[in-house]
Amino acid sequence: MLEVNNINVFYGQLQALWDVSIQVKKGEFLTVLGSNGAGKSSLLKAISGINKPATGSISFKGVSIDKLLPHKICEMGLIQIPQGRQIFPDMKVLENLEMGAYVKSARKKIKPNMEKIFSIYPILKERSEQFAGTLSGGEQQMLAIGRGLMGQPELLMLDEPTLGLSPKLALNMLSSLTQMRDQGITLLLVSQETMQCLKMAERAYVMENGRISMEGTSENLLSSEAIRKAYLGI
Question: In whole angstroms, what is the distance from residue 215 CA to residue 92 CA?
């Protein structure tokens, strides 16, 4: 579904990604792991069209997207949930969700899509008339994901959705992603929650210093001595 081939990404003169390649299959739950500053967010921004790769290629459903504008990529069904939530705090929960349906095809299905989101995050229905800025951190993250789901993604990319959450809330947040996969959404998750992500995802890539250092099935990576020492403290 998604192919990233040998991309190099720069911020001015500073290189952030070196010859990075990943593949995401349709219906898959894939995770990209790595410490802070490893280049995970830069990878997602390159896929989303926010930071254009200097070299290399990116294709989605067989179509080249590395030169497309971000809104065109969204219209194809590839949507990113950014790190830091970036909700509209002075708008109500319901209005935030409606803002996610800007993709033309999604405008016709606002009500059924919203009901799907409420089935995953019932608290958002309870808070629908509340201003988004008054929600708790966990509720704001649910809202950010819900807003992305309103765009009817075929592939949903999530950048550190558990950042700043308590361990219990983080686990609940990650568990909710399996419901989305069961609804047919392909998932690409970027996270530092190594153990939990490897338990949930089918495959994983590990990034270090802007490069892919390891890849494989979650089962194999969980048994890797390098992963256990570097990320699990075992």
Answer: 41
